[in-house]
Amino acid sequence: MVGNMLGEGYEAYDRLPDAVFMVDAGNRIAYASAACEDVFGYLPGEVIGVSMLDLLLPEEQDRTLREARSVVACQARTGFENRYQHKHGNAVQVMWSARWLQAQQLRIGIARDVTVLRCSDPSASQALLARANLAPHEKKVLRLLLTDATEKQIADQLGLAVSTTHSYVSAIFRKFGVRGRAGLMSLWLRSMKIDTHF
Fold first, then answer.
1. Residue among 9, 46, 2, 39 nearest 23 (CA)
2. Sheet containing 91-101: which strands, arranged edge to edge?
3. Angle at 120 between CA 118 and CA 121, to 5 degrees
4. 7: left (phi over 0), alpha (psi -120 to 50) or beta
5. Distance, CA of 25 to chain centre
6. Is the Cβ–Cβ distance between 25 and 105 less than 8 Å?
7. Interatomic CA distance for residues 115 and 184, integer angstroms
8. Is residue 109 within a helix (H) or strand (E), and if so which, with residue range?
9. What's the pLDDT tens digit per position in 68-119?
10. CB–CB of 182/18 below 8 Å?
11. So what's the pLDDT on residue 33?
């Protein structure tokens, strides 16, 4: 249904490391990409028809509703953060980029899990690095992967070829057993056992 409304190419959303959502004017989820599982713990099919508000921590609902109204008022918004209850019980801090699609009457949003960026527990991160047995360059790439730097920006910062950086990124995902950045951040979060109330 959503695919027909948006035209060709929406399948590409499933290849993105961040979760893509399409939400109707009543805040019900009409579409969720595959990375929904990495960020929130839910398969896309589990959240279709569910209100986004039901996934939020209760204290986040009012300001999230205000933000949603701003998006529906035809404002593209970037950088809004709020917290959701992960399927496994922990809180997930999410940064959103969103806009209203007038023709489809849907709010499209890209959700990036930034929980790990809001926590500083060096002992936990060192333990996770030791478990993964990363090579020295992989460790450097990993630290930048946990930011919003693109692979090209990571390559530039480390003085590497983009193709070499991509190989490191793929190896890191493989060693941690994740599909992408969102899964990597979720794994990082679970290993640190961040308190759900921060």
1. 2
2. 29-32, 19-24, 106-113, 91-101, 77-85
3. 140
4. left
5. 22
6. yes
7. 11
8. strand 106-113
9. 998 988 778 888 889 999 998 888 889 999 999 999 999 999 999 887 666 5
10. yes
11. 95
